[in-house]
Amino acid sequence: MQAFVYDQPATRVIFGIGSLDRLSEEVQRLGARRVIVLSTPEQRSDAEEAGRRLGPMAAGIYAEAVMHVPIETARAAREVARQLDADCYVAIGGGSTIGLGKAIALETAMPIVAVPTTFAGSEMTPIYGLTEGGIKKTGRDRKVLPRTVIYDATLTLTLPAKIAGPSGMNAIAHCVEGLYAQDVNPVMTLLAAEGIRALSRSLPVVVSEPKNLEARSDALYGAWLAGTVLGNVGMAIHHKLCHTLGGTFNLPHAETHTVVLPHAMEFNRVAASDAMRIAAGALGARDAAQGVYDLASRIGAPLSLKDVGMPADGLDRAAKLATENPYYNPRPVEYAGVRQLLENAFLGKRPA
Ligand code: NAD
Q1: pLDDT (tens digit, 9 = 90+) per residue, 60-74?
Q2: Is residue 253 in contact with ligand 1, taking CB distance under 6 Å?
Q3: Closest residue (by CA) to atom 33 of ligand 1?
Q4: What is the pTM of this model?
Q5: Contact 92 CB / ligand 1 (< 6 Å)
Q6: Nearest atom in ligand 1 to 246's CA
Q7: CB count, 10 Å around CB of 2?
Q8: Strand 135-140 and strand 127-132: pairing?
């Protein structure tokens, strides 16, 4: 067996339909008294609902979270917290809202209670992102890891299929890259395989039967596992490429992950054959890369970079940027191979 280090930071997880009812109790458990609820403007009503559950502990709502966590938004939220003398945040929403909570915690070390409403998995990671002067920086810091996560599938009922599907594919990407991570360990391998299994069986139902709470719960279960994997092991070419494409060409996060993943898997197919065998088994497919492509197609998610706003004349630059600084990947990352990967993703070809 390969040698490994296992060092899992603890997050308390409350999972179950209706578990938002426990919000107030969970905040009290952290010893907090004055709570700010964070959300996007579109999810203000969710924030208000959380505020009602908190009763007298609710100090205010900051419903200004946006994609990519601009530093200005983080600073404004910190200032609101200071004025309201807050001692805890509840972040209710997807990766963007939880990301805002993390940006605040990075400076204040205040505890975050995360209530995820998508399947992206951010709530389980110590990874934060901040955009300053148009450049998104990411980092890892245990201070930003939510102390408590409440998974309540009821809150995902309003999530439209076109956001739900890609956010679940984003979670599958964490699992797939976790399987061939440089610092993989046996526990994360188990979680990654189970995450792929749960997400690949639930996402088609989430999309075709929007009111099916069991399927949404199953997808949240997969998201929890996927986020745990992302938080514990390093990622490789797929995440690097998506970060480059999102940052340089402003492509939408979850959709970009959805499109690129099968091609990154095709790229790593031979070099990471054990990981691909596990992923294929979890997907119930003969070939893992094709299985992921077919899943994306089945849930009606975008299949090509050209459909998510990538300019054809940006492919050379993207390949150059992604290969400039060498980083771990099971197959050595060189320009020609990555350029081909991007070409395939641009056209939305089914992996051969
Ligand atoms: P998101 O948070 O950007 O949300 C997308 C949209 O969906 C928003 O308008 C939001 O208000 C809306 N929405 C979310 N839940 C809803 C619901 N239940 N009902 C109705 N509308 C809802 O989407 P996301 O995919 O969760 O997050 C993407 C962001 O998260 C990216 O910026 C990405 O970098 C980050 N991310 C970070 C990590 C990490 O570990 N740090 C992991 C995954 C993603």
Answers
A1: 999 999 999 999 999
A2: yes
A3: 95
A4: 0.97
A5: no
A6: 34
A7: 7
A8: antiparallel
